[in-house]
Write a structure and sequence with these properties.
The chain is an all-alpha fold. It has one domain. Helices cover 74% and strands 0% of the residues.
Length: 149
């Protein structure tokens, strides 16, 4: 199995949770929002860390650079933005602020998944040999505790 297929599957499994959190966030208390943010943090950061460790290194030179900051310094990549938004949701002391961070996290995550599924995974499938893609898939399975055969 190719790593990109496994990662697309993870996206598919995460989308219902993102939809659930988005739907329920309007009626939640601050502690409930923090629990939802912690759940999203658990799955999104685990997913991002796996991508950064396995998917990204062999295609790094082919990836577009994130937009620069206003001062011209390199801007954060999507994973860094998602981490910051989740931290904001977890640390917010105001209910509305926490909700805004959480909803922005979901928005950025959906855009990020779309970018990966339409661009980044295609780069990987083009630049990484078939055998190496299978090896990446095996590494994904090892890290996730999944038996492929």
């Amino acid at each position: 199995m190719r790593l990109t297929d496994a990662l697309k599957g993870e996206h598919g499994a995460m989308n219902p949770l993102l939809a659930f959190v988005e739907e329920r966030s309007s009626g939640c208390t601050l502690p409930e929002l923090r629990v939802m943010a912690a759940c999203l943090e658990s799955i999104l950061i685990s997913h991002a860390d796996l991508e950064d460790a396995v998917l990204r290194p062999p295609i790094e030179e082919h990836l577009p650079l994130p937009p620069p900051n206003p001062d011209g310094t390199p801007g954060p990549n999507d994973h860094q933005v998602i981490r910051r938004l989740l931290t904001g949701a977890l640390e917010a002391t105001d209910l509305q602020e926490a909700r805004q961070f959480l909803l922005r996290t979901i928005e950025v995550t959906h855009k990020h998944f779309e970018k990966e599924e339409t661009k980044i995974f295609a780069i990987s499938e083009r630049e990484v040999s078939g055998q190496a893609q299978e090896e990446q898939g095996a590494e994904w399975a090892r890290r996730r505790g999944v038996q492929l055969k």
